[in-house]
Amino acid sequence: MNCPYCSYTESKVVDSRPTDEGHSIRRRRECSKCKRRFTTYEKIEETPLIVVKKDGTRELYDKKKLLNGIIRACEKRPVSIEQMEKLIDKVELKLHNTMDKEIHSTKIGELVIDLIKDLDEVAYVRFASVYRQFKDINSFIDELTKLLNEKNN
């Protein structure tokens, strides 16, 4: 780490503290040459996820897009934004644990479907209706029947 004051390459760590809920470390350093102190931050470098869409196009994973879809599904339902964000955190953890750099949008959708079902049944049906592109009322009824069967078992 180069000193920002004299550009000397040697410094020692004087103090380290976790920041950002443990996602990064703040380090106070002291330059070995000019003895001035400066702060650096260290965090894990995450490789970006690429989403492969149904039509084969690729785009960077966007947490905001996923959150917007979940917010629409949970509209006027007793689901807090914190619950929605926790759901997304679970989805992202599963995506990163696959170690794949490219993730198919269907995989993301299935992960959300599995988790949103436990959060709110109405939100689940709303999300499923868009994600699974119900063609008619029978598709909708089939999904509701599956949900009721799972609940009764």
TrEMBL record:
ZnF (unnamed) residues: 3-34
Assigned keywords, A-Z: ATP-binding, DNA-binding, Metal-binding, Nucleotide-binding, Repressor, Transcription, Transcription regulation, Zinc, Zinc-finger
Cofactor note: Binds 1 zinc ion.
Residue intervals of the ATP-cone domain: 49-139
Keyword Transit peptide included in the entry's annotation: no
Entry keyword Electron transport: no
UniProt-recorded Gene Ontology molecular function terms: ATP binding; DNA binding; zinc ion binding
InterPro entries named in the record: ATP-cone_dom, NrdR-like_N, RNR_NrdR-like
Pfam families assigned: ATP-cone, Zn_ribbon_NrdR
Coiled-coil segments: none
Cofactor(s) the protein requires to work: Zn(2+)
Listed GO biological process terms: negative regulation of DNA-templated transcription
Record PROSITE patterns: ATP_CONE (PS51161)
Purpose: Negatively regulates transcription of bacterial ribonucleotide reductase nrd genes and operons by binding to NrdR-boxes.
NCBIfam families cross-referenced by the UniProt entry: transcriptional regulator NrdR (TIGR00244)
The family this protein is said to belong to: Belongs to the NrdR family.
Protein name per the record: Transcriptional repressor NrdR
Species assigned in the record: Helicovermis profundi
